[in-house]
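Please decode residue identities from the backbone states below.
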């Protein structure tokens, strides 16, 4: 059996060459499963997305998207906060939309983590987020003393006998 030694980590199937095909053709399920498990789970790492057309970093201009909206963690820390609520109260929703288009309000987020960590956690699995926030996922089992279990079983058997 040949041993595969890679110079870098596996990302997509194009790095394996024809090893996947040979594993399938030779009915070596173990090797095929091992090779697949070493590939990246992220769909963006697949070979069809590694072409020069897909690697364009400036997707915002490619799709003609506006600049991202400003995010605020705390209203107290930033003194240049735009507040269009008075426009809404005085002139209604149409004037508010116009004022917001001209001078956009920041989106206020209220979390304990900084913005960078929030973006990372948003892309993680639920179990990873709970592990980071130290939320216990284990079910709490309350063990009874052996004597208490016997007493409870006796009471239950008496109730069953009466019925």
């Amino acid at each position: 059996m040949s041993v595969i030694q890679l110079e870098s980590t596996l990302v997509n199937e194009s790095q394996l060459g024809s090893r996947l095909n040979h594993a399938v053709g030779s009915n070596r399920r173990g090797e095929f499963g091992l090779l697949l498990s070493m590939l990246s789970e992220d769909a963006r790492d697949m070979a069809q997305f590694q072409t020069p057309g897909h690697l364009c970093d400036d997707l915002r201009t490619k799709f003609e998207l506006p600049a991202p909206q400003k995010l605020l963690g705390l209203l107290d820390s930033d003194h240049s906060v735009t507040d269009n609520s008075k426009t809404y109260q005085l002139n209604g929703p149409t004037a508010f939309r116009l004022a917001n288009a001209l001078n956009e309000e920041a989106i206020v987020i209220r979390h304990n983590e900084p913005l960078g960590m929030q973006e990372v956690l948003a892309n993680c699995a639920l179990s990873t987020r709970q592990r980071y926030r130290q939320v216990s996922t284990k079910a709490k089992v309350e063990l009874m003393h052996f004597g208490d279990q016997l007493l409870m079983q006796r009471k239950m058997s008496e109730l069953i006998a009466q019925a």
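Observation: The mean pLDDT is 76.
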